[in-house]
Amino acid sequence: MTFPYTGEVLGEVVKSVALEWNIEDKLFALAADNAFSNDMMMGNIKEWLNDRGSLVLQGDLFQMRCSNQISHLIAQKGLEVAAGSIEKIRECVKYIWSSQSRKEKFESALMQLQLAGRSVHLDVDMTWVSTYSMLKSATDLRQGFVRLAKLDSDFKCLPSSDEWEQGIMICECLKVLYDMTAKLKPERYPTTTMYFNIYEINKNIRTWESSTHKYIREMALEMRGHFDRYWSTCSLLMSDAVVLDPRYKVNLVKFVFHRLYGEHLSKTYISDFRQALNNLFHHMNLKVALQVPTILATHLQVYQVQLTLKTIKLLLNLILIIMSF
Known about the structure:
Radius of gyration: 30 Å
Oligomer: single chain
Strand order of the largest sheet: 1-2
Strand content: under 5%
Helix content: over 70%
Structural class: mainly alpha
Largest sheet: 2 strands, parallel
Distance between the termini: 72 Å
Order of helices and strands: HEHEHHHHHHHHH
Low-confidence stretches: 314-325
Number of helices: 11
Mean pLDDT: 77
């Protein structure tokens, strides 16, 4: 692949691979992460496949965003808004890890509290999972920092009770997304059950939007924008997959839409979804109907070849019988 990795370049690579593997007329959907270049790539590929008449419903079901990646993006963007609320806790952790003597004093403080053997984790600003790990370990050992302030006169960055409380609240929000991310890991091969996980993410964001804490509401507002963009792209494809899963059918889609949009607005979305599902059925029904003559002709040719082979076999047997006389 040639640099730069623009949407045009990525699109041409996918096209060439599809042609090489002879699957250009068999592509149903393509999953990609949230990068801008991928959006351009998707647009180019959809236009190309639509010109060939290869896409189902003109590509309405073609683009699928990576569920795992979008959960990471939601958490990362939300955490950026709440960064100021946890800065004091991060400074505490950095203080512990800044020298061996400070680390030993903290270990001594933990030993006095019968918490020996535990430690706090440094985080990387660009990785929200490491920030969650730092917050979780630090808030669990908050009493150790309180004790350290009495043992070490140089320790001046002890958070207040309100700052600790903010860290705990943010950590609880991140834990929800951390658990969801674990369920969506690629090696777990998620199927339509991830519909539940996406619904749970939305439900929690809605809860945080009505929080009494301003910093939680601001974090949820940032998360909402990214979630809605993801859902608007993928909801139709995911809902169709759920309906075709014999465990769930359409009742689960109705339930989720009711919870997402409310009783009145959900009727419009359910109606649009039913129309899309009907269009999908008619498209596949027409496709099968067009393939039937080809399938019958293929079977007829095979049957004719089988008859020819039987005829040759009979002639050979007849020749052998004549030669035996």
